[in-house]
Design goal:
Strand order of the largest sheet: 2-3-1-4-5
Radius of gyration: 15 Å
Structural class: alpha/beta
Shape: globular
Largest sheet: 5 strands, parallel
Bound molecules: shikimate-3-phosphate
Distance between the termini: 6 Å
Length: 172
């Protein structure tokens, strides 16, 4: 896949994996537009993610998440930063693969734990959730993330290094 192909680059990974940050730099360097799915949900629903979770629950959020994904056109390539739970539904995989290549930004638990410390806008990773539960969620999802077309390790690497690897390997 080259950056001139008609394919999107879809970034997946656990909360704190750096999907939005990597997505921003990747979009800039590749000249593609960036779509942040969480931001799109907030825009479409007119409510923040914590408010959606608190008022309507996770199931409603997952429904909005799939609808937001479905609303994306595959007519022009984009960089898409998804939310960490997108991988839990088979339908989402079909929608992501329709758009382009799915790339897993992999990070070990220590990296994620430190990046998530103090996070207040992620209902499934607040201090009240407890570290054991967040780690458990991560472990449950690992085999799902690994279904990606490409796996890129992010531990101990800066954003530019990760973006360079994506641009290089995504050309193959
Ligand atoms: C979630 C991850 C969040 C957001 C929501 C649920 C998850 O996105 O979609 O809070 O289930 O892992 P980030 O991965 O961008 O934090």
């Amino acid at each position: 896949m080259s950056t001139t192909s008609k394919k999107a680059i879809v970034l997946i990974g656990f909360m704190g994996a750096g999907k939005s940050t990597v997505g921003r730099v990747l979009a800039k360097l590749s000249g593609l537009a960036l779509v942040d799915l969480d931001a799109l949900i907030v825009q479409q629903q007119g409510r923040t993610i914590p408010v959606i979770f608190a008022d309507q629950g996770e199931a409603a959020f997952r429904h909005y998440e799939t609808e937001a994904l479905r609303s994306l056109s595959d007519a022009s390539p984009i960089v898409l930063a998804t939310g960490g739970g997108i991988v839990g539904y088979q339908e989402n995989w079909q929608l992501m693969r329709r758009l382009g290549s799915v790339i897993y930004l992999r990070a070990n638990w220590e990296t994620l734990r430190s990046r998530l410390a103090g996070s207040i806008d992620r209902p499934l990773a607040t201090a009240e959730c407890g570290e054991a539960d967040i780690k458990n969620l991560w472990q449950q999802r690992l085999s799902l993330y690994e279904q990606a077309d490409l796996i890129v390790d992010t531990d101990g690497r800066n954003v530019d290094e990760v973006v360079l690897e994506i641009l290089t390997r995504a050309k193959d």
